[in-house]
Write a structure and sequence with these properties.
Residues 103-292 form the ABC transmembrane type-1 domain. The protein is mostly helical. Helices cover 69% and strands 0% of the residues. The longest helix is centred in the middle third of the chain and has 37 residues, at 95-131.
Amino acid sequence: MTQLPTPGATPAAPPPAEPLPTAAPVRPRWRETLGLLARNPTAAVSAVVLVLIVLVAVFDETLAPDGPNEQDPSLQLQPPSWAHPFGTDEFGRDVFSRVILGAATSLRVGFLSVAFALVVGTLIGLLAGFYGTWVDDVLMRLMDVLFAFPAVLLAIAIVAIRGAGPANAILAIGIVYVPIFARVTRASVLGVREEVYVRASRSVGASDWRLITRHVLPNAAPPIIVQTSVSLAFAVLAEAALSFLGLGPRRPDPSWGLMLADGRGFIEQAWWYAVFPGLAIVVTVLCFNLLGDGLRDVLDPRQRTLMAGSGR
């Protein structure tokens, strides 16, 4: 039997409403990517080392104790010491200063050649993957022709035809890596162009330019970013190989490959002459490769979900 309220009694206050759950703020994708990359110690250390190498290349003249061609005949082939941490060469030049100054030359050739390959290769891959049909056939067959030649031999042939020098080395290395970027971009675009959001935008009348710039390219970018890091490693190696063969920067300009070539004749009596430029190449290439591996894990959707869920 229901009990009626007593006349004049104050009704009981209703229970307090539970607060609605607040959604966590959405982090920008680039910040999330950097956070996941920082949790990978190998990639994080590689990125820090590369930043230091780039800073050394930018401020090379400030950091180098001596000029690139300052000679002291009384200090020929001196071993490493406090005054000359990397020793001296056959002309009495400070190897430490030349390694620092050579970083600018080697990295400049590597970055500019990869930038050339990135722009041209990405454009070719976008057109081939987005339009397909005869455009895809023609462009990809041209890329297959370039792929038929070994990379270093093709670069040597281009430099041999156009002549030695940094500009021609940049062009040669860039042409070698254009097909790689074209193939990576095309493969990524083929998977993106049939997505629902792309077809929906096309159905409402979006132009090809808008589809490519707003939907296709941003979502096809992760593999291209990873390939850029990997290609930078091989570009530094290719520049060192061309310089070693006398087809890159010319003497007396310092370059890691040139220093390696000059030091090979003194490897028994002055091991430091070739070892330190070689170590600079090894560390730079290794860091680019390790950073590329970390970017591949972070930008892959499956690996990204696992890393975010495991708290790595």
